[in-house]
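Our consortium's second objective concerns turning raw sequence data into structural hypotheses that experimental partners can test. To show how far this objective has progressed, the report includes one record in full. It was chosen at random from the queue rather than selected for favorable results. The single chain below, 234 residues long, was entered without modification.
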Amino acid sequence: PRDAVGGSGTGTAGSGAGADGSGAVPRTLNELRQLDEWLRVEDADPQCSQMLSHAAAVHVEGRSGADLVTLLGRVVRSRDRTRAADTVGRRLAMAVMRPGADRDRFVDCLRALHDARYSVAVRAACRELSDPSDALTVDAALVADVAGRLHRAGLHKIAWTLLERLLENEQLVTPADVVEVVGGVLALPLPDAELLLRATVGRWSDVGHRDDAVTALRDAGRREAAEWVIKSLR
């Protein structure tokens, strides 16, 4: 089923498609529906259709947000749909972390998933982007930029969640990362920027790390933001 969802990108049908379908143009939604109908006509085991719908749903490369929503809707069993939605969110985040990735597409996909109430996918995307499972470091500039795009697109709560998840992770975030994110937050401008910093960096348990962040903010000319962090201690 994994190969069945890939199209003719490079090589023969399905060739070059990895776990997320990268390297191949995906089959159209109509082609996938025809494949499913063919399985039923041939009296294939129902599990074949289930596997096809899941493989198609999690193949995010080359898909619009509307396509992803439609394909997730074709996953019949609720628990399978939830699992697929989680995978979709993670793969969208991993895709946008690649050099030259289309960040607006990422935002459009999250908007479609949010509007269709696939909150599992949205949460998974924010989790993966703010705490990458396959990386030792996080791209704070990318997170700040994506959060800004989400905010400007009207997805305020998702933007907040993404920033909050990042800044809460004191083991991963460096003082330089804090400065990077603060610059993006203030550029929005985010109405609750003070609350965001006080609820995250201001509550870091590692006092030395928190003080380093304050110093970095001051050195970068973000003295007001530094005071917001300090205020959390009073």
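The partners drew two points from this record. The longest helix spans residues 78-96. Residues 8-19 have pLDDT under 50 and may be disordered. Both points have been shared with the crystallography group to help prioritize constructs.
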